[in-house]
Design a protein that fits this description.
Blueprint (H helix, E strand, L loop, with lengths): L3 H7 L7 H4 L5 H11 L3 E5 L1 H5 L3 H14 L6 E6 L9 H5 L5 E5 L5 H12 L3
Helix pairs in contact: 3-5
Length: 124
């Protein structure tokens, strides 16, 4: 994520990390407010993603927002380092048909990921 942050900023995308969400609010209120402000939501799926208990709250909130607003492609999933798809949270597996996703291994150059992200986050 530390490598991804400057790449997103170079695309004029404002990354929001967990520590940016709360600011004196309840966890759920912070998550809902941030997701409502987003044009797209990017989840970086790795081993640590599964370790964070709140990720399922964030995933469910993003899914609810996307379904309610009929946003196809609103949720973007970046699969890190060959993470096995069968270990994805069920919430993501159940909507796999309507999300954008791609993989990113440590061997890939930043230019490759920049191109993928540019295509996904280009202004509509």
């Amino acid at each position: 994520t530390k490598t991804l942050y400057p790449i997103l900023e170079s695309l004029n995308v404002k990354p929001c990390l967990d520590e940016d969400i709360y600011g004196g609010r309840t966890i759920l209120e912070g998550i809902v407010n941030r997701i409502n402000e987003c044009r797209k939501v990017l989840f970086v799926v790795s081993e640590s993603f599964l370790d964070i208990g709140q990720s399922s709250i964030e995933v469910r909130t993003a899914i609810t927002h996307a379904v309610h607003n009929q946003f196809q492609g609103y949720i973007v999933v970046l699969i890190k380092d060959g993470f096995p798809l069968e270990r994805l949270p069920d919430e993501l597996k159940n909507i796999w048909w309507c999300i954008e996703y791609f993989g990113w291994s440590e061997e890939e150059q930043n230019e490759v990921i920049l191109k993928k992200l540019t295509d996904i986050f280009k202004p509509e």
